[in-house]
Amino acid sequence: MATLPEFFKKLGFIEASQQERPARGPVESDLCQLRALPHEDVYFYCKRIDNSRLVREADPQARGACWSTIGAALALLILLSGVLAPSAANTLAGYRLEELRAEERHLVDERRTLELQEAELLSPERLERYAKERDLAAPSPDQVVRLDGKGEGAVAMAQK
Question: pLDDT tens across 41-77, in order?
Fold first, then answer.
């Protein structure tokens, strides 16, 4: 960055008579004087640029590059889906299998409970107790009709 005197010289505040010094003989160097910095005479000016009225020109190759990128991404997505779909289906099938096994265990337990209840309801002691409560008697041998197809009168028919 320029020093302040250089800046004033460029703006014209210092006259030409002051700018040019008469050449004297050998210059006595001051022991405390610093040497000049590199690029001390360079001045940077930052100008504001307004690009709000600019319109971008369409690039015909950019459209093709975009579609190529979209196509490549879609192909990659289809490939990854094809690779990952069997493992995902396997996992879901494993969950479904465990769910069905749990349901089978539940149904087997329920079936055992129902068989136990049926055995209790059809026990001979309970049936005899039920018959005595209702004043029922065992049928006589001539009232029994066998349906196994052997013997006479094997067909059960409603009698009048």
Answer: 888 888 999 999 999 888 888 888 999 999 999 999 9
160 DSSP 8-state letter:
-
Single out the residue of 37, 6, 4 nearest to residue 19, CA to CA.
Answer: 6
- What is the model's pTM? 0.40
Q: 132: helix, coil or strand?
A: helix
Q: How far is CA 82 from the centre of its chain?
A: 17
Write down how long the chain is: 160
CA distance 10 to 3: 11
CA 82/CA 109 separation, integer angstroms: 41
More confident residue, 94 or 30: 94
Structure tokens at 140: 């006589």
Q: In degrees to the nearest 10, what's the CA dihedral of 60, 63, 66, 67?
A: -120
Q: What is the DSSP letter of 135?
A: T
Strands (E) located in the chain? none
